[in-house]
Amino acid sequence: MPSANPANSNGERGERSLMPVTLLSGFLGSGKTTLLRRILQGNHGLKVSVIVNDMAELNIDAALISKGAAGQLVRRAESLVQMQNGCICCTLREDLLEEVSKLARDGRFDYCVIESTGISEPMQVAETFAFQIPEAASAETANVDKQGKSVVLDSGSAGKVKGGKEARQQEQKVGKKAKAEELSLEVDPKKKARTSGSAASTPAPGPEDSKQGQGNGNEAAGQAEGAGALACLPSGMTTLMDVARLDTCVTVVDASRFFDDLTSIEELADRHPDEVPEGDMRNIAQLLVEQVEFADVILLNKADTVSKAQLKDIRSLLHRLNPIASVHETVHSQIPLSEVLNTGRFDMEKAGQAPGWLQAINTANAAERTGQQAAAKSESEEYGVTSFVYTARRPFHPGRLYRKFMRRFFLTQVMPGEEEAEDDSKEGEESEEGSSESTDSMEPDAENGGRGREEGEEERSTGAERAEAHCDRPSDYQEARRAVLAEAKKELGSVMRSKGFFWLATQPNSVLGWSSAGALLQVTMEGPWFACVPKEEWPEDEDIQARIKADFCSDPEIGDRRQELVFIGQNLKEQAIRKLLDTCQATNAEIAAAVKGQLRDELFGGSEEEGSD
Ligand SMILES: Nc1nc2c(ncn2[C@@H]2O[C@H](COP(=O)(O)OP(=O)(O)OP(=O)(O)O)[C@@H](O)[C@H]2O)c(=O)[nH]1
What we know:
The protein is of the alpha/beta class. The chain has 2 domains: 17-353, P-loop containing nucleotide triphosphate hydrolases (Rossmann fold), CATH 3.40.50.300; 384-595, 2-Layer Sandwich (Hypothetical Protein Yjia, Chain: A,domain 2). Helix content is 31%, strand content 18%. Strands 3-2-6-1-9-10-11 form a 7-stranded parallel beta sheet, with helices on both faces. Strands 12-18-15-16-17-13-14 form a 7-stranded mixed beta sheet, with helices on both faces. It is globular, with a radius of gyration of 24 Å. The model is unreliable at 5-16, 61-70, 80-90, 136-201, 205-227, 416-473 and 606-613 (pLDDT under 50). Guanosine-5'-triphosphate (GTP) is lined by residues 26, 28-34, 57, 118, 301-302, 304-305, 331-333. Guanosine-5'-triphosphate binds at residues 26, 28-34, 57, 118, 301-302, 304-305, 331-333.
């Protein structure tokens, strides 16, 4: 076991004095507590402090903690600090700001391990470490959400506490109205991943990106509201990184549940009604993918519960989802502790670049520019797990994209509510070419799919939605899921993950986000294309400007507008997917109709808001 506080790549701020931290993430029952027990009882010579959500579950007798590991257990319910004002989308872990800084300053511990609840996103923890809170900020303005129960620290602040998806929905509204300079903040590496992580791929930052409002002169407005959290940090300290460093993000994956979870259409709240905050509409599949994509180390645990062939399949997919992470097959989380403690593996910059979809885009773009051939067959390809990038410089026709492609998934749009299109017949009148194909064959066969949502929710499902009324029992869920997956598999292969952004004829100014995990596809309205942003409002950084320019094509009318979608999956029918998407491209007549506002938008409803071309 290496000594604590090794020098690593996290910066030059004298890490030796910083308390290293390992974060354990993973679904409920995946094996996190089992690993934690190993750490506490391990013979590694470190004094480890542990922050857990539920001490009872640890079920460990203090006497069993090895002498060398003698440490402290801290039970602390996860609580969120919701940033208000210019950075409302930031949600920090207030409990960690407080506990980690306390433990680090205490000085008695060599190491800290945080066991997150199964519904946590590791990225939130990393952001909590990185977040810079201005000293001058008042401690009066943060609201805190403790496990979804709103606790308003500031009696004068009327801001409603929102968590998870609800906060993200609000981001969408804000994002749409955000000014270009707000959208073009150069921020932490995660933002780079979303906006400029690709050396060649730089869609104008959307609301998700404004979430990362850290790291430059524009940050103060967004951060001032984190001041409530600052109250728990000592004077002069403005970030957790002053006293601690995130060393390793470990995600424990339950092999026996992996494919079921990845293809689940359940929301977290369906499975864990008591633990998920009200209004949190995240779903199982997306959280699983996020936990995998953000990890430095993945434990493919419960390896004893699946066959060798299944293990290889999962391992291959994990590798595609996150090529940077080290993956270990484990039984009862048995792993040399040096693989999870003091590894020095976490690096904010690298974490932002880790997702396989992002690497696929980078590789494809680099290959296109340099004319290089694709790399040799990787190990995962041998197990049928592949990825490819679809690109195009012509907008999609919303109706065709929806009917021909998106309805292979359970589709969710995140945007302010609007009327749902009802009459598909108009389509035929508008379309000059693509409409000649029979739409019948493109209807989802799984008509019992989809599920009802609460009235007034901004998120709406449209994929396979027609049988919502029949879908109120779990057995129907399973039936619906099976049917949709089977149909999609027949047409597309097993698309396990897809991600990127797209361009619709009816939304010429907006970067539209695309993210699927298993059977669920979510589309979001992000910020403007840079083609719509005056040059003087572009980020000042020359590297970023160069990347933006590289995304422009020779046609100034198009600018950086494009389709850029990564597909990751097993036995993918790449040619079929490409062909299907090609047929979704709008014809010249349809583009002209869209410009006149005569093309109905089944996806985002109506024409764009003010400022449209
Ligand atoms: N068969 C098998 N069972 C395992 C393995 N690892 C853990 N378990 C069992 O799975 C159950 C859940 O393990 P935990 O370590 O409590 O999982 P957790 O991730 O901490 O779960 P939460 O605390 O609920 O989030 C326990 O009964 C473990 O004994 C494994 O590799 N194989």
